[in-house]
Amino acid sequence: MSEHGQQKKTLLWLQSGGCGGCTMAMITAESPDFAAFLEAAGIRLLWHPSLSLETATEAAAVFDAVLEGDEPLDILCLEGAVMRGPDGTGRFHMLGDGSGRTMMELVDALARRARHVVAVGSCAAWGGVTAAGGNETEACGLAYEGDLPGGLLGPSFRAAGGLPVVNIPGCAPHPGWILETLMNLADDVPAEQDLDAFGRPLAIFGHLAHHGCPRNEYYEFKASAEQLSDLGCMMEHLGCKGTQAAGDCNRRGWNGGGSCLKGGFPCIACTEPMFEQVEHAFVETPKVAGIPVGLPTDMPKAWFVALASLSKAATPERLRCNAVSDRTVLAPGAGNGRRRS
Known about the structure:
The protein is of the alpha/beta class. 25% of the residues lie in helices and 11% in strands. The longest helix is centred in the C-terminal third of the chain and has 13 residues, at 301-313.
């Protein structure tokens, strides 16, 4: 029971085919950290593969209590893709309790009992890196296989609370995305209209990674970096997909304010289905007739090309020079392209 006398909501976290990076991201949460968050949110953690002390047999008893209706399950989280191989049997990932059950079977059964089901990370959401290449493990997400509806639970799945699978993609997702979503689900706040077409919370994924990018001034004037150490916009030559990737990465920041772009690396759109299936290096921009193939998702391509030409013609010398430098060579001010009145 919580300090207010209300029954705590229950959370069960499972991990399937993945690297554990989503848990690593989650436990870096600050103000509050994960333990303090659970207490504040009134959530009781039934089990977590990395954070709980129970043996495999004891964990299996928790699962069975949920399946038999003796323990309510408010939120089921899956980290990592569901491995359905070989040949749809799921036997590539067996439980370690000697029961002979597959993780695939367990996840499916628990999802039918849970009030809310959450896919944490791009592997659980779409299959992600685990499903890349030939996908020999037959990996998939809970409700998607790549960008196609389906996955383990099927496109028509609805949890007991009425919502489809709530996807928190990212490789790895921001800890704030995870905690914020769990808090809202514990309070039964979201409705289906609060999710986008891929089941992602709009409060988080109704933004683009481009929003808040520290290189936006370079982007506006199409002053492009030519190598990773340069200060300029990385869309034209270095593969940045910030204008195509959902997420408030650059508004929220990691570990006090960082992000991929702030760290000098292009956005690879890790929140998007099939991000891992590119046919070129992440730090290269494919082009046709000199025009980048991946252009911003929120404007017609012809307009973008026309505006880019105008922007390049109007690029201040300060930005043109700094864009291809690893430090600020020309600072804003008189004599650096600013007209005096």
